[in-house]
Amino acid sequence: MQTKRMTLPGGWLPYALLAPQVIVTLIFFIWPAGQAFYQALLREDPFGLSRTFVGLDNFARLFNDPLYLNSMSVTAVFAIGTTLLSMSMALLMAMAVNRLIRSRHAYTTLLVWPYAVAPAIAGVLWWFIFHPSIGILPYMLDMLGYRWNHRTSGTDAMLLVIFAAAWKQIAYNFLFFLAGLQSIPQSLIEAAAIDGASPFKRFWSIVFPLLAPTTFFLMVVNVVYAMFDTFGVIHATTQGGPAQATNILVYKVYADGFVGMNLGSSAAQSVVLMAIVVALTVVQFRFIERRVNY
Amino acid sequence: MASIKLEGLRKTYPGNVQAVKGIDLDVADGEFVVLVGPSGCGKSTLLRMVAGLESVGEGTLHIGDRVVNDLEPAQRDIAMVFQNYALYPHMTVFDNLAYGLKNRGHQRDEIERRVQEAAKMLEIEELLPRKPRQLSGGQRQRVAMGRALVREPAAFLFDEPLSNLDAKLRVQMRVEIKQLQRRLQTTSLYVTHDQLEAMTLGDRLVVLNGGRIEQVGTPMEIYLRPASLFVATFIGSPAMNLFPVDYLRERGSGLLDDLPEGTDIVGIRPDDLHIQAPDKRHLIVESTLELFEAAGAESHLYVRLEGNDQPTVIRTAGQPPVTEGETLRFHVTREALHPFNRESGRRMGV
Ligand SMILES: Nc1ncnc2c1ncn2[C@@H]1O[C@H](COP(=O)(O)OP(=O)(O)OP(=O)(O)O)[C@@H](O)[C@H]1O
Ligand SMILES: [Mg+2]
Predict the structure, then answer these.
(1) pTM for the complete prediction?
(2) What is the CATH number assigned to the segment(s) A77-249+274-290?
(3) Which segments constitute the ABC transporter domain (chain B) (predicted)?
(4) In chain B, how many domains are there?
(5) For the segment A67-96, what is each residue's pLDDT rounded down to a tens digit?
(6) Domain range enclosing B300
């Protein structure tokens, strides 16, 4: 492909044009990241008066800390739960809309709204709905004979944060699934119908495999979202409790660092999180390059 | 094997789009019937109703001895070849062919045998392990054919299967489709807007216009005796020339005296305008040669008639010694005249 190339007069101009972006990146991303790496190697006394260099000791402690290991499994449950729930709901909705043949725009736009809601607001919303004494859902569950209380039951709390986090993400997933579904030619489905496949079979043998690239992309996006972008949801609902049941990794960084004032450990935790993000990103790019299976 | 019978078939899409306005048609067992007509005339809609992809609005549809109006596509025992081939992109060619057999619960060795057999017939054996995206357009077309015939259905339905191929491949595939159909003797309905394809493929043609049948007949019947002005100008290339009957009468002796009652327009095929005088009785028309088009074995002469603005085409064999701008006389015999009535658009006389 021919690309148009423009040469800037040499000297300072190109640097000046790049400078704002570079400066913002340095101040808000690179420098804090560097700080985190640096702090991860230090330990502060409880009053913040002195620091000692401890090498990788913070990391060693972290991986021997049952609370941290618990937080990891909590995060795994939370991320998988949120991803599965939001993706399956989104796929169901996308299929229903796709059936209404080629986009009713008003409907589609409405479904996108939750995505524009801030995580904390989503959290508060669901906190109200699930509130043990004033919420509508516990009231209805009570009539079915289930006593909902996410302040005492870890399971209930986990369900609450999963609902809140997944709800917000459904809209985003929905859009991608709908676009994916619309890009599957109708004649493929028709050919499969003539070939004697039931609607169920058509979905699993034709539609779902053809959606694989979309599904994979969304899976990574959702896991990343659930792991790193749900601080607001947790903070507005359970604050990691009860008894650490919803204390996911990002929330623990905050809780240990800014509430517990253990900066060294908190920094080490952020470094671990950074490593996870990098790993997920690499996985994503590798797969997108290969365009998945067909 | 089965016959197909359409009785009073109608289809109205939402928004009051009447795509099919009452079609009666009998397709005999083993017959190859081509539906031909201009874009938007309802060919695809009709075919899709037969396939079960579109609900039947009104009327009755028989395949074999069953009424299939309310049957699912899969239960109708038909196979369809789509214009865009509709191959499953994530499956190998083998799996594309096997899919319909698997869904119908055939044994694995039976599937293997039938796929191999179909692949052999279409000469796509070495393509079996490939994915559709690794095939050329022509190869995809063959695979789509293979997917249709591997199931040994009672009828084939084709919706413009050759329109995505280049001219040369189209001719080649046309011949192959015809030979395959002869060999398998499977009842076939074939949709096209290409009149050459229609003429060469069909045992019978159905010419559609605006959701209605204009004429049904063998290709030669339709060519030699078009039942309406629409058919006359749609079938045949270059299209039939039309002359007001009075214009010819002024020029032509008693030759037009026995034209049927009601004739006010006369159609003449470009082949029937002769530059050399035939030795039968004929009428003579003077014209000016505006454009000469040599197309190899034949030539097209675009002429302007004296006292009539209508562009007229003459087709002759070889290359006649003419130059553009010269005055050209052409000759027409009585047999070449197709009498029509302008208002009703129908052919006059029996
Ligand atoms: N799903 C639909 N909803 C509404 N109108 C439709 C639909 N499908 C087709 N039509 C209309 O019905 C008429 C017949 O369409 P059809 O596709 O049968 O034409 P066709 O003869 O196959 O044309 P082409 O040669 O262009 O494929 C057209 O006027 C078309 O606009
Ligand atoms: Mg069509």
Answers:
(1) 0.80
(2) 1.10.3720.10
(3) 4-235
(4) 2
(5) 888 888 889 999 999 999 999 999 998 888
(6) 239-340
